[in-house]
Amino acid sequence: MNLVEKVLARASGKAVVEPGEIVVAKVDRLIMHDLSGYLTADVFDKRVNVAIPDPHRAVLVFDHHFSAPTEQQADVLRRNREWARKHGITLLDCGHGNLHHAVVRNGHIGPGMIVVGSDSHTPVHGTLGAVAVALGNDSHAGTVLPYGKAWFKVPETVCIQLDGVPKPSVSPRDIALWLVGQIGEGELNYRAVEFSGSYLRGLSFWDRWLFPLLCVDLGAKCSFVEPDEVTEAFVRTLPGATAELMVRGDGQEAAAVLHFDVGNADVAVACPPTVGNVRPVSDVVGTPVQYAELGGHGGGRLEDFRAAAQIMAGRRVHSDVRFNLVPSSRAVFAQATREGLVLALHEAGATWFPPSTGSNQAYNMGAMSAGEAMVSTHSRNFPGRNGSPEASMYLASAATVAASAVAGSIQPGVVA
């Protein structure tokens, strides 16, 4: 069995499971942000309303309404706080960071876990060797909270083998976007996706993170990186975390293996209207932007701010651009402060925001008017995602975002 099958077998009390089999498995962690938590709480209170036997399994993170701008949004946070307090659910209040980074940084996710959440990017926790899937709020309220379980159909596995050496200035983010364009949106429907290969194995933990992050755009149910020394070393830096539950597959072949030479990838941009509309940056160079942002589930990493600081050295943000910086977690902001990145980017004209999910859906920031455009490290670029449906969102690497902020139009960034 591979990693996903082993974890599902253990959690469902079976010796062996096979693709297509339906199992009822013990859930180790339920993760919710302020929007999904509010909906789950409403269903739970109205239709379930029992004591939660293991409230420590659930973690609620405020990352969309990181500083409520209206009474209605403040009421959502107040209701969430009251519900979490009533049931003993772990709450990471405003300022902790975006959902997925915050739960990892605070030691709530570990290898071998089954993790569920309503956010579509929940599968990103496969980077740690967890089996992580997105479920609906009714499932959270009806089975996960009262019983600590959920049902799963064991997915067939597809292995994506990434080998080769990238071209200069082509970053892991560029390659992740390029990969979605190569495979196609929705082409791996309900599969488990394993990311492997010599290129992938040579990446740091947070660069590996960028690949399972995008598996939902491929239509996959979950994704994972087979745990190794990089995984174990990272896990040991987390508070209270342990690598004892780390699961490794038996080396059995996947149902399909897709081979990609990363040397064929160029600096990439996902253009409107979907993540799969990936083009070489040369196709859109010179496109004017009014906003640039480092943030979101795939951005706001320390690596992103380091890259931006290199690009911005001796330069300033263009007068027509608002360059927004959103740390993915408090830990990232603290380290960026220690390294002098906060002051350097501030003096270059960028604006720092609280650790959160940033302009994701424009709940607190980043709403655009018709005809405006943003280039960002976010994970979504659908029309209307950030304000007007006539605004445009381009997804790119941190280097491209920073270079575009300087130029006032989309430009590739060169990082040593």
Automatic annotation (TrEMBL):
Any one GO BP annotation for this protein: oxoacid metabolic process
Superkingdom, natural source: Bacteria
GO molecular function, one term: lyase activity
Keywords on record: Iron, Iron-sulfur, Lyase, Metal-binding
Domain Aconitase/3-isopropylmalate dehydratase large subunit alpha/beta/alpha: 25-237, 283-408
Presence of keyword Thylakoid: no
Pfam families, A to Z: Aconitase
SUPFAM superfamilies found in the cross-reference section: Aconitase iron-sulfur domain
Stored PANTHER family: HOMOACONITASE, MITOCHONDRIAL, HOMOACONITASE, MITOCHONDRIAL-RELATED
Protein name: Aconitase/3-isopropylmalate dehydratase large subunit alpha/beta/alpha domain-containing protein
Organism: Mycobacterium alsense
